[in-house]
Specification:
Helices cover 18% and strands 27% of the residues. The chain is α/β, with parallel strands linked by helices.
Length: 316
């Protein structure tokens, strides 16, 4: 893949608020880097709490040159959790400039219609054109179909300004980079075995060309890389972020790393070793990273590790 260096504007800070993730814990302690939702309101513990599900949705706020630019990365599995959690947290999406989809799987697009409605008509919806292709996963004894992605006409009817990207693009007046298709360079990140995508009436191996991440440049601190599922490989994604920006220093890696399940687990240790070599200062594995991998990150990178939970607010 042809690589190009983009002029990503340096940001002063970035705040990542988890609207939904696989895990919720009201008793987690905060720190200078992460603020947890309060256990009580006006001295009373509420009957309701934040909802978790097998999905991911992040509200990303980037501060640059005195302005704050907000985008949403992914919208969770169902159309219930993200809108509910937004209301519970007292958050609105009126200032959101764009919704970015990391890829087309159902656990990242569930509340898309609702989020578009909350952001308002004309909001940019950034996605790779492969999200529209049918997908299946082939197991030894059966084939399972993924839920169909909404059509282009449906998205327009919902009020979205659809932006289809294969190449990197900049949002937030140049302060937020969407990687587009990620170059594959590592030997141990092999995608999702058994995944197929339909092109020209034929199912072929799905290489997840639509997998993309967000990148923010904090200057001397380094890059912040935010992944949805990292089907392209989280190390591939981080390396590509460095190639696109010309900044090889990595400050934080946040999001889904897709290391869950027996097929993916052989990639856990080499992934951790590469993160150590990069001297990543903040690492918060989410969603599809899996319990075993998250535990190993906590053991091997305790000073950098942040256990994520729904409603957590990470500020860098």
């Amino acid at each position: 893949m042809e690589k190009e260096t983009l002029n990503l504007r340096q940001a002063d800070s970035v705040e990542i608020i988890t609207l939904v993730d696989n895990y919720s814990d009201v008793l987690l302690q905060g720190s200078k880097t992460v603020i947890r939702p309060p256990l009580a309101r006006e001295g009373v513990i509420p009957k309701n709490t934040l909802l978790a599900e097998h999905g991911l949705s992040l509200l990303v706020k980037v501060r640059a040159n005195g302005k704050t630019h907000s985008i949403v990365l992914d919208t969770g599995y169902t159309n219930v959790a993200v809108p509910y959690n937004l209301d519970y947290l007292g958050l609105t999406l009126e200032e959101v400039e764009a919704v970015v989809l990391s890829h087309g799987h159902m656990d990242h697009v569930g509340a898309l219609k609702e989020i578009i409605a909350l952001t308002g008509a004309g909001t940019k919806l950034v996605l790779h054109p492969d999200v529209f292709h049918p997908r299946v996963i082939q197991f030894p004894l059966e084939q399972l179909s993924f839920p169909a992605f909404p059509s282009r006409d449906e998205l327009k009817d919902w009020g979205a300004d659809v932006v289809e990207n294969k190449k990197p693009l900049l949002l937030g007046q140049g302060s937020i980079l969407v990687t587009g298709e990620v170059s594959r360079t590592t030997s141990f990140e092999k995608g999702m075995p058994g995944a197929l995508i339909k092109y020209n009436d034929e199912f072929i191996s799905d290489t997840f060309k639509d997998d993309q991440s967000l990148v923010i440049d904090l200057g001397n601190k380094g890059l912040v890389v935010i992944s949805g599922c990292a089907h392209a490989g989280i190390i591939n994604s981080v390396l590509y972020a460095g190639e696109l920006t010309g900044n090889k220093k990595i400050h934080a890696v946040i999001g889904g790393f897709h290391l869950s399940g027996a097929i993916m687990e052989p990639s856990i240790e080499p992934t951790i070793e590469e993160m150590k070599k990069m001297a990543v200062q903040v690492i918060s594995p989410m969603h599809c990273t899996g319990f075993k991998a998250i535990t190993r990150f906590a053991e091997e990178m305790p000073d950098a590790f942040i256990l994520n939970s729904v409603g957590s607010r990470i500020t860098l």
